[in-house]
Amino acid sequence: MVELADKLVRPAAARETGRRGAVAAIAWRNLWRNRRRTWLSAGGIAFAVWMLVLSLSMQDGSFEIMIDNGSRLLLGHIQIQHPEYFDDSRLEFTVEEASPLAAAITASRGVVSVAPRLQSFALVSSGERSFGAQILGVDPVLEADWSTLPGMIGEGRYLEAPGEVVLGSILARNIGVAPGDEIVLLGTAREGGVAAVVAELVGTFDSGQTELDRSIVQIPIADFRSGWEMADDEVHALLVIAESVAMSETVARDLGSGEGWRALSWRALMPEAEQTIEMKAIGAYVFFALIAMIVTFSVVNTFMMTIFERTREFGMLMAIGMKPAAILVQLQLEAFWLSVLGVTVGLLMALAFIAPLEAFGMPLPADAGDLLSRYNMPDRMYPAFSYTAAWLAAGIMLIGTQLASLIPGMRIFRLRPVAALRAD
Amino acid sequence: MPLKLLIQLGWRNLFRHKRRNLMLLLAIWVAVAGVIVMNSLIRGFQYDMQESAVANLTGHVKILAPGYLDDPNIEKSFELAEDWQPDLPGVTLEGWAPRIRIPAVIMSERETRGIQLVGIDPSRETISFLDSVKMLGESLEDAADRRVIIGKELARQLETDIGRRLVIITQGMDGRNREAGFRIAGTFDADGTGLEKLFVFTGVNALQNMVDAAVITEVSIKVSQQLEEALAQQQLTEAFSELEVLSWQQLEPQAAAMFVYADSAIFIWFLVMMGALIFGLMNTLITAVMERVKEFGMLRAVGMRPRSVVAQVVLESTLIMFVGVIGGVLIGWLLVLWLSDGGIDLSQYAEGVELAGMRSVLMPRLWLQDVVLVSVLSLVFGVLAALYPARRAVQINPLEALRR
After folding, report:
1. Final residue of a domain: which of B219, B250, B281?
2. Residues A262 and A95 sit within 8 Å (Cβ to Cβ)
3. Do B244 and B290 belong together in one domain?
4. Shortest Cα–Cα distance, B401 to chain A (Å)
5. Does the pLDDT value for residue A13 go beyond 50?
6. Do residue B67 and residue B186 come from a single domain?
7. Is B50 on the interface with A (CB under 8 A)?
8. What is the ipTM, given to two decimal places?
9. CA distance A154 to chain B (A)
């Protein structure tokens, strides 16, 4: 202790050389004067960090999957549309000269594929039965490439040639048709005439989403074009698939808009997904704020006990000339080491939990099937270690611990060396 | 040692370190109040989800013709006597509504959409969402009203408005398509756009005329006591042996699954909060034991039994937890009251809210049994946290402790 005091009260010139390192080392050693207490405090910090990183990693992972699966079913990560089409889906709001635009977008960074889409509402009938449905004109070859829908064919097969049609399984049941039957699509063409397409049903799909299975019909885009009297190279949308969901935002921003078109990202295309994510994120922050508060109060408590027990020591340090501010700095350094310890343990624990899940996936409860399909979730989840969460947790706990030691630490300024030396 | 003395000792010990125990209390208050508030929000969410599942033309129990769910059309219907009344002894009914609900195509001058055409008796729809939506224009007058009410979003998509005409095509009883013109009486504005795009309402008798049959496709029944749901279903199943009688859980399995998950979410929240708390609690208790080594040594030397030492540490932990729980519940309750004043406005997340089956204003709901459960479990946690410090206290050797 004398040695320590000596170090701290040496003249300024000598102090400059070794002081900082020495104080830090002393602070670290001080932590281990009460091992149990240090481990319990660090344990609280570690628990908070672990919880936050774990829950945010799971959530981020599930959001990413939810958006990706939703996008890959029908919508794409990004759509290039006529500027007014999204708010008012009129048949005539099209993107013209789509092929050169599609080629240019395909060549840009981060883009995996681009597919054209024409769409309208029509009556779907067979015999006496008629139902209303959304008719999508698609490129069968490209569609099989990027969309998951062609893989969800329950009966029959996906589109291959002109004159064919596939539709949702519920719609097929409602109309009372099976693969091989003939179907008539009746709508209003571009110039106001009747759009009529007769096609052979070749397959039905089962996406698991009632809404889609009851209302979606796909035909080759060429059939749509001739039936609805659309011009040769016009489309309602170009569907862009990016390398990843995260990448798609950059791509959408880079694309921006152009002559007669604009790019819409999944955030605009799936507002319900975006809003669900925001709501859950708010919930997660409230959750973490509460845990951080509980842990910080516990650490305040720890430092209060520490300072109380070391009143005599502080009194002696002050008696031999150490400034209260220097003592406080040392305490803050102890708090710093404590949070470093806790954060490290917490992050390692989180990593230990997430790494195997990242590799092998986490099976989700089987009876959640219906619920998962509503949110476009698969039955297995692959969480990814969230670096944002790790930084956030480390930062908050670091600041929280500094505050926690500062609050009781201010007491040092009120200590009178003589009285403190006599304290028991 | 008599328990009364132990409690007295424990209580006084709490005040030996006022500031330290106050910090601990703050932590417990945050944890308990946080659990209480979160609990009430999850319950509110659960309640809303169930209510909207029931209000979306489902009811607690619904009577349907066999096969209607797989293939909803007018042929899967049944006749209901003009003077039929639900006869359910032991069940308090909130209401019941007969309907025809069939898929149809609706056309304005400009656009065409597929919808669910619902024939209703407007006076009976107090049990569905129609009762609480904002209406523009007029509602339907009676079961014979030949006009329609449509959703605001559908009106926008069809580029039509109140007072204009629409053509609706649907299948008649004979399997042939019927086409009829309807005038729009009014539009309804629901929380999200899902319901607005899906449902078009007209008078049930008007729709019966259109399809040429005096039949209905469903009867929804809403009970006032949730507990009587199963009883109602059972009695109706007996009364309508040739029809299907299904509960809302069977009709809306996604909402039912979500309901169950919300229950487990409540427990996870509790465990995490208490987990964060237990570190601080143990730390304080251990310090309280270690700084009283001498005191415990003396107590042991004058004949205090190890059992009483354990009892005293556990008691101190329980006492502080007790004070913490009372304060936490009180703070939580005040916060819930404060949040209940107007609820939490989620309207900016309307589409996400609708996807989750919630409403645009989330009302927290605090249940007495949840408060009791949280309190009791917190006390159990207090006892658990005290076990290790208590063991340390018992290990104190009276002779060594006194010599210090």
Report:
1. B250
2. no
3. no
4. 17
5. no
6. yes
7. no
8. 0.76
9. 16
Give how far the C-alpha of residue A357 lies from the chain's centroid of Cα atoms, to the nearest Å. 17
Nearest-CA neighbor of A138 among A158, A169, A116? A116
Q: Are A201 and A220 spatial neighbours (Cβ–Cβ below 8 Å)?
A: no
Same domain? For B221 and B285 the reply is no
For residue A304, give the nearest of B23, B111, B175 by CB distance.
Answer: B23
* pLDDT tens-digit map of B1-34: 677 888 887 788 778 778 788 888 888 998 899 9
Instruction: Identify whether residues B306 and B167 lie together within a single domain.
Output: no
Whether residue B231 sits in one domain with residue B93:
yes
Residues from chain B that touch A277, judged by Cβ atoms under 8 A, are 352
Q: What percent of chain A has pLDDT over 90?
A: 31
Residues B314 and B245 both lie in one domain: no
What's the DSSP call for residue B73? Answer: S
B21, B23, B274, B346: best to mutate for the A interface, most A CBs within 10 A: B23
Which of B222, B250, B278 finishes a domain?
B250
Q: B125 and B196: one domain? A: yes
Interchain pair A297, B24: CB under 8 A: yes
Same domain, B349 and B377: yes
Number of structural domains found in chain B? 2
Q: Which of B31, B284, B353 sits opposite A301 (nearest CB)?
A: B284
Query: DSSP secondary structure string, B133-200?
Result: SEEEE----STT---EEEEHHHHHHHT--TT-EEEEEEE-TTS-EEEEEEEEEEEEE-SSSHHHHHEE
Q: Which of A8-12, A57-61, B309-313 has the highest mean pLDDT?
A: B309-313
Burial B91-103 (b: 16+ CB within 10 A, else e): bebebbbbbbbbb
pTM of the predicted structure, to 2 decimals: 0.78
Tell me the C-alpha to C-alpha distance, in Å, between residue A314 and each of A186, A386, A420, A421. 89, 42, 7, 8
Tell me if B353 and A275 make a contact (CB, 8 A cut-off).
Answer: yes
pLDDT for res A368: 53
* B258 touches A at CB < 8 Å: yes
* Inter-chain CB proximity A298 and B103 less than 8 Å: no
Q: Domain range spanning residue B299? A: 3-53+256-403
Chain A residues whose CB is inside 8 A of the B30 CB are: 290, 293-294, 297
